[in-house]
Design goal:
It is built from twelve helices and 20 strands. The chain is an alpha/beta fold and about 425 residues long. It has two domains: about 210 residues, 3-Layer(bba) Sandwich (FAD/NAD(P)-binding domain), CATH 3.50.50; about 100 residues, no CATH class.
């Protein structure tokens, strides 16, 4: 089959939040010479929704629009006006089990754990407080380099054992010491005095987690926003088209059907290991191989849960899933909930209503920072830019991804 060549100023790989935001930004600046290539039949990436049991279900996990970035929200509200969203105060919780004197006991407290141990019985509060007092970060012990030791150093032995280590193992990797510690500095300081004061006053302390307040559509799943952004692109959007390779020297994209598209700028928002990098140095290709990720299965259950929480974390290793999203608590007129399970832990049931996302979370392995830095540095010299969760291999929420897309569009359009 004879291939055909298309020439565009901007070739955008992927129509998830990063690609859609970038494309609409340059479109708003008057740019018309661009194309967005998406392998799925529908846009949205991890933020897609599907109708399940009479209501939308977010098939890539739980995604919400944080309130904190006004410029991002103002931009997104031009596609889906604020009147079409509900504003929520976050209610997320942790359900965990500890060994009791006679039998294990299960507790549920609000997230984050260290800010809400005051919700536990006095005996458990005392146990965690004593552990926090002995944590390395509070006693002057040098910061460890290994993940498991770092978590214990930061939060204390008991929180590490009961929550952080089993939860992260379920979510990311069986061997947690494969992960680096460079991304953990965002965890709040766990001061014994502040934690003790929170127990005395019966209220949470410290910095609120992400999505402390968030928007979610009134009538739709989160995927509706991205569908509308895709429609704005018209014929500049090409769906059901798989990228096979990128000729780095000439910036030529080859699709599965043989079509070739040459761009002045290539914006990569898809995983670097999902296509061939032609003519890239061996060092760069080896770095791509070092970029690891997890897959997840999203499974729907129709019964309502007796909770006001929107999502709940489950560190218990005996449960396959690591969290539950309680749909009926953030989507009007819906019922049921869905679980999120790392695919390696998922056990299929013939009655399951399940969606699998092959690319869910970038892994912050020890080698990742140097690897992605090498890939991005090489590409940027050739006008090939990584953008978003997969282009930059960072666990960005959608609002952060849109912000970075807006910034890159401003930069390139100003050149």
């Amino acid at each position: 089959m004879e291939s055909r060549m298309i020439n565009k100023k901007y070739v955008i790989l992927g129509a998830g939040p990063a690609g859609l935001a970038f494309a609409n930004c340059i479109k708003n600046k008057g740019e018309t010479d661009y194309i967005v290539i998406e392998k799925e039949k529908e846009v949205g990436g991890l933020c897609r929704s599907a109708m399940v049991d009479g209501a939308p279900l977010d098939i890539g996990g739980g995604h919400f629009l944080d309130v904190r970035r006004k410029s991002v929200n103002d931009f997104l509200f031009t596609f889906m006006p604020v009147e079409e969203w509900n504003l929520y105060e976050r209610d997320s919780r942790i359900t965990f089990t500890v060994e009791g004197e006679s039998r294990p006991k299960t507790y549920t407290i609000h997230h984050p754990f260290e800010a809400n141990i005051w919700e536990l019985p006095k005996k458990e509060q005392k146990r965690y407080l004593e552990s926090i007092a002995e944590a390395g970060c509070n006693t002057g012990v040098s910061k460890p380099e290994r993940f498991v030791a770092w978590i214990t150093w930061k939060l204390g032995r008991e929180i590490a054992h009961d929550y952080m280590l089993p939860y992260n193992s379920k979510l990311f990797a069986d061997n947690l010491n494969e992960l680096g510690t460079y991304w953990l500095d965002k965890l709040p300081n766990v001061s014994y005095d502040e934690t003790l004061e929170s127990c005395k006053q019966h209220k949470a302390y410290g910095k609120q987690p992400g999505h402390a307040n968030f928007y979610y559509p009134k009538k739709y799943g989160y995927g509706e926003l991205w569908l509308r952004m895709g429609r704005e692109l018209g014929d500049n959007l090409l769906c059901d088209a798989t990228v096979v390779s990128l000729d780095c020297n000439d910036r030529i994209i080859t699709l599965q059907d043989g079509t070739q598209i040459q761009g002045e700028y290539i914006i990569c928002t898809i995983p670097w290991d999902s296509f061939e990098l032609k003519w890239a140095p061996t060092k760069v290709k080896d770095c791509v191989k070092k970029l690891k990720h997890t897959s997840v299965n999203i499974t729907y259950y129709p019964n309502n849960m007796d909770t006001e929480a929107q999502w709940i974390y489950y560190p218990n290793p005996d449960l396959d899933y690591h969290r539950i999203l309680v749909r009926h608590n953030f989507l009007e007129g819906s019922k049921g909930y869905w679980t999120e399970t790392r695919s390696e832990r998922y056990h299929a049931d013939e009655d399951d209503n399940t969606f699998k996302m092959d690319y869910a979370y970038p892994l912050n392995t020890i080698s990742k920072p140097d690897a992605i830095r090498t890939v991005l540095s090489y590409g940027s010299k050739l006008n090939i830019f990584g953008l978003g969760r997969w282009g930059e291999h960072e666990h960005f929420n959608s609002d952060v991804t849109v912000k970075r897309a807006m910034e890159l569009a401003d930069k390139l359009c100003a050149e």
